[in-house]
Amino acid sequence: VQLAESGGGLVQPGGSVRLSCTASGNQWLINAMSWYRQAPGKERELVAEILNAGVIKYHDDVKGRFTISRQLGTNTVHLQANALKPEDTAVYYCHVIENGLYEYWGQGTQVTVSS
Q: How confident is the model at residue 18, as a pLDDT?
């Protein structure tokens, strides 16, 4: 499975950004699609995930501001990030679990929130 990420960039505080990630391979074997982020000097953390059963989870810091969605019938997941804060600045990584056994990471996309 290969992951292709897009989106990110420089955005002002209060602004929005939309990240997208498309995974190759059989969509029926992908159990979960997620976004993680890693800020300088910090550990990588889960931002949001969406499971095949429709379960969605968010990090407490992004609840009400970020929305994760998966295009029906595809291996594409989006992260709509609104009301961005400087502390949201990080490299955002797409993460996929296939067949409950294998996990894959995207190469990451930088999101910088600054005026």
A: 98
Task: Evaluate the CA torsion angle 99, 57, 107, 22 in order and state its sign.
Answer: positive
Q: Is the dihedral of CA 7, 8, 10, 16 positive or negative?
A: positive
Residues of the chain with pLDDT under 70: none
Least Cα distance to 53 among 32, 71, 69, 36 occurs for: 32
Residue 89 · residue 95 · CB < 8 Å:
no
**What does DSSP say about strands 76-81 and 17-23: parallel, antiparallel, or unpaired?**
antiparallel
Rounded CA separation 43/37 (Å): 8
